[in-house]
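pinging the channel bc i need a second pair of eyes. not urgent but kinda urgent?? the chain im working w is below, pasted from the shared doc
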Amino acid sequence: MPFRGSDEILGSNHNGNFLGITELIAQFDTFLKNHFKNYSQAGRGVTSYLSSTTFEELIHLMAGKVRSTIISEISQAKYFSVSVDSTPDLSHVDQLTVIIRYLWQGKPVKRFLTFLQLKNHKGETLGDNILQNLENESIKFEDCHGQTYDNASNMLGRYTGMQAHLRKVNTLAFYIPCMAHSLNLVGVSAVDCCIEAVSFFGFVQSLYTFFSASTHCWAILKDKLDTKGYVLKSLSNTMVCTH
């Protein structure tokens, strides 16, 4: 969600989520309400703690606190497993998500740790990025007893895949393929063997392509289907995987 809007004016409908939510809280908080009254329109040179620079700093402080708490829990839990997946963001930068799974107070938890920017998708490069990041966070990879990814060859490759590279460093980091992704692959292969299913989904995709090519056609479609709660969606070209 965008924290910054097109302006930083209190009361504006376009001042973004940060100022908008702060204004909402001020309706129930006397201290914040008085702060708005005294400093919101004070102009440049007066510290108000309401600018975009301030909330960006607050976000970094909160992120640092959350990260340090997660790392502290991992240190106390000792043993953990790692799950990663890569995807390009809106700026077309390929990012590797790093998720750590461990036991905390007797219950398994999964925690997002960071995004890593990728230069290539070679298994060795991916593994080195993971190892370097864990080392920077003072997390000992020797305590990793599991790793799980999708079924891409650069991930699961027995000789040059990421899992093989990591197991050279820690033989106890056993690799388990993502069950959801494996099931997805089985489902796709099963559907490809059924002519009726291939024809049906091909027809649905053709409908989506036809209606989405024109805003006028899309409006007609929505008008006819809106009352029933249905909507056309494009078929996914990639396997959606939920670890």
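so The chain has nine helices and four strands. and Residues 23 and 57 are 19 Å apart (CA to CA). — does that match what u expected or am i reading it wrong
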